[in-house]
Amino acid sequence: MANSSGKIKMKIKRLIKPLLIIVLTFSWLLTGWPGVWLTNQIRFPQKISNVQAAPIALRGTAKIGIGSNGSDVTLTFDTGGGAPQEGDVVFLWGGHGNSSDANAFGPITAGYSMVGTIDSTGPKFGVWYKVMGATPDTQVQGEGGGNAAHGVVYGAYVIDGSTIDASIFDQTAVSTGQMASWVPNGPAINVQTAGAWVITHAAASATDSSRGTVSGYTLIPGQTVNETDDFVSEAAYIVTSSTGSEDPPAWSSWAAGTGGAITIALKPAPTPTTTLSTSSDPAAATVAPASGIRSAGQFAYTTSSGSDTITALTLTLAGSPAGSYAAVDSVSIRDTSCSGTLYFSAVTPSSDSVSFSGGTALSATTGGNTYYVCVTPKDHTLASGTYSVSPYVSSTWTSGSGNTKAGTDSNANALTIDNTAPNGATSVSGTAGNAAVTLNWTTSNSSDFNTTSGSVVYRWTGSSAGSEVPAEGSTPTAGATNGTATAACVISSAGSSAQSKIDGTGGSSGCTTTALTNGQAYTYKVFQKDNYGNYDAGVSIGSFTPTAASATFTQNKYLWYVDNDLADPTAIWGNPDLIENQAIVVVPSGNDPPGTGQELRLRVNYVVNTTGISISEKYFKLEYKAGTDGTCTTGSWTDVGTGDWVYATSGVTDGADIVKVLSDTTTGKGEEYVKSKPSQANHVAASAAEIIEYDFHIVGTGATANTQYSFRVVETNNLGATEVVFDGYTSCPTLITEPGTANLLRHGNVFTEGIEKGFFWVN
Length: 763
Prior knowledge:
By secondary structure, the chain is mainly beta. It folds into four domains: 249 residues, no CATH class; 147 residues; 119 residues, Immunoglobulin-like; 185 residues, no CATH class. Helices cover 3% and strands 40% of the residues. It is built from one helix and 49 strands. Strands 9, 10, 12, 13, 14, 15 and 17 form a seven-stranded antiparallel beta sheet that branches. A six-stranded mixed beta sheet has the order 23-22-25-20-18-28, with no helix packed on it. The longest helix has 20 residues. It is rod-shaped. The relative contact order is 0.07.
């Protein structure tokens, strides 16, 4: 194998085999080596930043260079996918035949670090590596090994750096072994990380093109290297998926001789982790049905390195009570806000567990990506109740890159959808008025009573309520209609507060002011609304029939006059004249108590109370009673025209206009002359608080002598058949008729039964 000069004699036939090897090698570079590519790897993959831990990838084909007689070897990488890239690891192996120059070989290219060497009595053998920087090597050179070298050979292969851990080696030392026999065993190595790539290199001093490799290992570059009879070297690899001792068996079919082997293990890059976490969940809130989309939760995905995608996940709505998903119209996942990019969406979920897939994948990066869980509540048609949801991402989610999954999401803050009606109104009542109804109620005592337009009163024409109710989530305006119902009042107030409102003429603020129809029945219900647009079923206030307001009267002043057969008398009764509100009595004689057949004119006025009167609206009649009780509110009364007192006959037209004469009628009006029952309908209109004056022409044809009579005016109908007593009588007209013959007053003494009683006077 070695001659005395230490030089190798090259022969033509010795060049054939190396040349054949080089041709095959370049053919292999161009066609690729299927044996190197692992499942799911593509040929010449580009460098990526987030490749999973297993398997470690051989980036490209290996390079082989052969020299002799101590010549240096240059290996040039191709410019395709097999060329080194930044972060890749280039392994250089090789050596030379037996030489006294034991270690005078290795890489000339700077930056390579030794993995291990074997300095046997035969071949000199070593393995080196280098991590490529920003400008990767395009060539790598190996030294020939000195003048005594025999059969120099180098090989280089590139490992995809993204698949190797930064520490590169799976253990701190490699295993080397020098074999005394020609069959080198790959030294055992302790694999610490599952998925490590175990590589064994062997060298020997022999010529044997038929030798094999380690059983179960694949050669790099896939075929033997046989350089002269003086030196052979090979590298093989296997991917292991377990930890523990890896002991490559002996290289096969090698002739006896000397040699050695080196075994190394490359640590796979750790699998990146994608972590799910809770982000800034929105505060707990209560909302109305149909209140629109809103955030109900937030979560984030963060990677330990590189990026990831989330292709599917399951949201748990965490409903309370169970089944609260029924209150959710849709749930979606968006970024930035609930108006941001839509990734997933589920409409009308059928359970509290909502699975998303098939939408736009979520992104995860090292800086973290936050997402919003957005919920749209259903409208008020859902069943009455209060529903709360606290959405969070369950442990069921999928990393699109196969990253290790970690972390959890939670959500302690509930979004509550309130579809529960408030308590109804209490203390309801009402009264009918003139073209109006007064309505009374006490508002709801519910804590969520809406103080803005929280009371809605519906009115129906008729004596019963219809089926209409206010539309939940809405607020009508006063006067708006809903079917046969009209919103009579829409009132803002505090809760538990007493309300009294007028609907119709003189209507209150918040109620209609259009006059209601007198004589028409109206029915009312009051509804209470809460802050979430929910109404109670309504509480009936009742049915009411407005009635035209009837003016009331107070009889005020009177004055007795002497009849002059004219509408307006001029002479006041008595001598001297009586004054207003002065009764006719027997004494003094100047009062001239009326006798049978003696006509009187009674002027009387009365105040119009509460409301005014229109022309031709009112009728009146005069009543009398006998007795010493001079009040107008007690006793038994008889219409003038019947019994003791009747209306006198005259040439004056009944109902003739008169001129007011009583002193306090400065705001009053003269009405009419009356000589029949009832009076004519009033001639003049009068406003409330005004005073009207009438003139009654009467005669006591049946009056009893020396008897006190009182008179009052009452309201009646056009037939005089009804009697409506005035609200009050300030003064009651009174007179005493003249004495009869039984007890006469004469000038001189008083005689009774012919017996003198005392001094008397006579008219």
